[in-house]
Every structure is written in C-alpha cells, then in structure tokens.
Amino acid sequence: MAEANWYVVHTYSGYENKVKANIEKTIENRGLQDQILEVSVPLQDVIEIKNGVRKKVQKKMFPGYVLLNMVMNDNTWYVVRNTRGVTGFVGPGSKPVPLTEEEMKAMGVAGEEIMLDFEVGDTVTVTAGAWENYQGVVKMINESKQTITINIDVFGRETPVEIGFTDVRLDL
Length: 172
Hints:
It is a single chain. The N and C termini lie far apart (45 Å). The chain has two domains: 103 residues, Alpha-Beta Plaits (2-Layer Sandwich); 48 residues, SH3 type barrels. Strand 8 and strand 9 form a beta hairpin. By secondary structure, the chain is α+β, with helices and mostly antiparallel strands. The strands form three sheets. It has a five-stranded antiparallel sheet, with no helix packed on it. Strands 2-5-1-6 form a four-stranded antiparallel sheet, covered by helices on one side. The longest helix is centred in the first third of the chain and has 15 residues. The chain is built from three helices and eleven strands, in the order E-H-E-E-E-E-H-E-H-E-E-E-E-E.
C-alpha cells in the first residue's frame, strides 16, 4: 500500500468544519478509513479582550484550509475534490503536493510525541549548553516548546532557567 501524506485542501471561507464533516461522512459511507486517515481543521487558543473582559476562544489557524492525512490515488483525489465546499488541493495545477514533516512541525500540527521520564518536582542534571553539569528541580514543563523550567543555584540564589528536553537527564 502507498504511504499516507498530509495534503492541504482549499475551501470556501467559513466552510472548513462543514467540509471536514462531509469528508468524514464520505469516508464512512465508502469505507475509505484505510486511505483517508485523518481530516483536520487546526485550531489555536487565543485570548480575546472585549469590553474589558478576557475570554479564551479557539480560532482557526488556517482559515479557508483543511488538512488531510491520506493515501493519494485517483479514488481519494476524486472523493476529496468533489466534496461540497472544496475548491481544490493546494499545489501546481491539478497535482496535489504533500507537506513535508518539517512543514507539519513548523505549523505545530503534527510531530512525534515525546515521552518524558521526569515530572514537576524531580531533580535533573543539565547535560548540554551554558548550564551543563548544573542540577535543578523541575518547576514547569512546556510540551509545545519542548522545554522545562528548572530552578538552579546561582551565587546562592535559586534562579529559573529554561532548558530543552534533550539537554537534561533525570537524577536517580
């Protein structure tokens, strides 16, 4: 079987969720679960301030676009291209161009999941960078930036320092 890649589909403005629902219904009706693996309308959390009130809302990261993880063949191309609200695939002419893994990571949509062997309160040793060989206690973990904040002792004072996941090891 061919390899699945991420593709971008252009839609009418405001129709992203409708297109997603239509494609998912077509996948179910035609039994294409093994060819169209995921349909995504990426969202991001945004703080809006209206009339002095802070409110957390979700906004579309790419208005007018839907991301598809699918195996490209004539059948899947036809199904997606002829879905109501779809204007076409992103790419030159009628040939869809798959997104690279780097492009997906840059968009913050897909990437490998990292399993951490430490958590808040654990003591770790920095293994690289300016703070190499310093020990600190994990105070915060930021999975989206892939960093942790640790408190290290600098000149007798606890100082918070942000370190990448790969630059620390758990002390046992």
